[in-house]
């Protein structure tokens, strides 16, 4: 009986600590996105006017590896049994992608635009006892930062 209580307490603690960390990360993302809103990251190859005087163009990238906590992994496993939307993994992917784009933009804070932006994701860190579940996700964002004389 004691072992069951310990497991329940640890799962509950993991849930609350994981939720607090995720909320803190989202707050950080929102504030940093507001600071870098002046740098659009677009998927088209060229949005610059023909007569623009380009003073700098360089490849930039940003990456992020985000891990899921054990409580959300447990909930996702249950969701996989019964089917439906796996919100725990959706927030994991969302945080990783947004963080990667922010880190990319932070590499060129004076750029006017980031052209041809691409985002790649992959799962990493699968453990033998997770039965193929996601351990962590990596997102990498890259594009061409362009600065031009106005």
Low-confidence stretches: none
Q: How many structural units, i.e. domains?
A: 1
The DSSP helix count reads 3
Order of helices and strands: HEHHEE
Widest β-sheet, arrangement of strands: 1-3-2
Write down the overall geometry: elongated
CATH class reads: Alpha Beta
The assigned CATH architecture is: 2-Layer Sandwich
- Average predicted confidence as pLDDT: 85
Tally of extended strands?
3
Q: In what range is the share of β-strand residues?
A: 25-35%
Largest sheet: 3 strands, antiparallel
Radius of gyration: 20 Å
List the helices and strands and how they pair.
Elements: H1 2-35, E1 53-67, H2 70-82, H3 87-106, E2 113-124, E3 136-149
Antiparallel strand pairs: 1-3, 2-3
Helix pairs in contact: 1-3
Can you walk through the features of this model?
It is a single chain. By secondary structure, the protein is α+β, with helices and mostly antiparallel strands. It has one domain (2-149): Translation Initiation Factor IF3 (2-Layer Sandwich), CATH 3.30.110.70. It is built from three helices and three strands. The protein has helices at residues 2-35, 70-82, 87-106, and strands at 53-67, 113-124, 136-149. The protein has a three-stranded antiparallel beta sheet. The protein is elongated, with a radius of gyration of 20 Å. It starts with a helix and ends with a strand.
Notable characteristics:
single chain; 150 residues; alpha+beta; Translation Initiation Factor IF3; three-stranded antiparallel β-sheet; 3 helices; 3 strands; elongated
């Amino acid at each position: 009986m004691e072992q069951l209580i310990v497991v329940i307490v640890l799962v509950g603690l993991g849930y609350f600590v994981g939720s607090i960390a995720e909320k803190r990360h989202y707050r950080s993302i929102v504030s940093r996105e507001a600071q870098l809103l002046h740098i659009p990251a677009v998927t088209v190859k060229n949005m610059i006017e023909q007569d623009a005087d380009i003073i700098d163009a360089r490849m930039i990238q940003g990456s992020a590896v985000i891990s899921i906590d054990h409580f959300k992994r447990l909930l996702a496993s249950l969701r996989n049994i019964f089917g439906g939307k796996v919100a725990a993994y959706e927030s994991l992917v969302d945080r990783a992608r947004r963080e990667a784009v922010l880190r990319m933009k932070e590499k060129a804070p004076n750029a006017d635009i980031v052209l041809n932006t691409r985002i790649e994701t992959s799962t990493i860190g699968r453990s033998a006892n997770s039965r193929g579940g996601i351990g962590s996700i990596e997102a990498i964002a890259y594009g061409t930062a362009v600065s031009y004389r106005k």
